[in-house]
């Protein structure tokens, strides 16, 4: 009874943390904020899957799914970061940069 309540509370806390990541992914001003928000959601999904596995006594199956999901999340974030770095610029915002130009690039 106590462990079930503990796992339910932990799942609710993780879901609330995922909501914060969702806010950052949707409302982030730059593409870097969007990528970090999605990565935060994916990172919180992994322990949530393990908690669900413990609650339903299927840890063996859901741990494998959680590990595969964590690897896919990591690879997807790396790919998205690389894409935005090469194509559009990872740190581009709608406002101009506040740092002075040092004349290093073209």
UniProtKB/TrEMBL annotation:
One term of GO molecular function: sodium:proton antiporter activity
Domain of life: Bacteria
Keyword flag Transmembrane helix: yes
Entry keyword set: Cell membrane, Membrane, Transmembrane, Transmembrane helix, Transport
Subcellular location per the Swiss-Prot or TrEMBL entry: Cell membrane
Main location: membrane
Membrane-topology annotation of the record: Multi-pass membrane protein
GO annotation, cellular component aspect: plasma membrane
Residue ranges crossing the lipid bilayer per the database entry: 6-23, 35-56, 62-80
Pfam families: MrpF_PhaF
Recorded family membership: Belongs to the CPA3 antiporters (TC 2.A.63) subunit F family.
Name listed for the protein in its UniProt record: Multisubunit sodium/proton antiporter, MrpF subunit (TC 2.A.63.1)
